[in-house]
C-alpha cells in the first residue's frame, strides 16, 4: 500500500523496459486495486474499478504481478485482485491462458 514501495519500483522498472520494447502498458496502483472482496458474478455486482480491471485483463497480451511478501505469501490486496480473473473463466481462451505472466515478489 506504500507509494514507491520496493514492489512498485520493481514493477515500474519492468513496465519501462516493456515500453522501450514497444509494449503499451497500464499499471494498477494500490488505489486501483482497493476492490470489494471477490465474489462469483451471480452473488455480487461488480464495482466500476473491478469491471475496468477485468476488461484490461481480458485485452492484455501479458500481465506482470508485483507483490510484497507477507508471511511467505503475496499480499491479500493482490490475491483479491487476481481472484477477479475468474470472471474470464468463460472467455476463449479462459482466464489468463495463452498470455505471458510475470511475477515479482519483494521481501526483506
Task: Describe what you observe in this structure.
The protein has 108 residues and is α+β, with helices and mostly antiparallel strands. The chain is 32% helix and 17% strand. The protein is built from 3 helices and 3 strands, in the order ααββαβ. The protein has helices at 6-20, 48-59, 76-83, and strands spanning 62-70, 73-74, 100-106. Strands 2-1-3 form a 3-stranded mixed sheet. A hairpin with a 2-residue loop joins strand 1 and strand 2. The longest helix has 15 residues, at 6-20. It is globular. The two termini are 16 Å apart.
Q: What is the fold's blueprint, element by element?
A:
Layout: H1 6-20, H2 48-59, E1 62-70, E2 73-74, H3 76-83, E3 100-106
Parallel strand pairs: 1-3
Antiparallel strand pairs: 1-2
Amino acid at each position: 500500500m506504500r507509494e514507491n514501495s520496493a514492489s512498485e519500483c520493481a514493477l515500474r522498472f519492468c513496465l519501462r523496459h516493456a515500453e522501450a520494447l514497444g509494449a503499451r502498458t497500464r499499471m494498477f496502483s494500490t488505489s486501483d486495486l482497493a476492490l470489494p472482496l471477490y465474489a462469483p458474478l451471480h452473488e455480487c455486482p461488480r464495482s466500476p474499478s473491478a469491471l475496468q480491471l477485468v476488461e484490461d485483463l481480458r485485452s492484455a497480451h501479458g500481465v506482470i504481478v508485483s507483490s510484497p511478501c507477507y508471511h511467505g505469501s503475496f499480499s491479500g490486496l493482490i490475491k483479491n485482485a487476481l481472484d477477479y480473473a475468474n470472471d474470464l473463466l468463460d472467455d476463449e481462451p479462459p482466464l489468463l491462458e495463452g498470455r505471458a505472466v510475470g511475477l515479482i515478489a519483494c521481501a526483506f
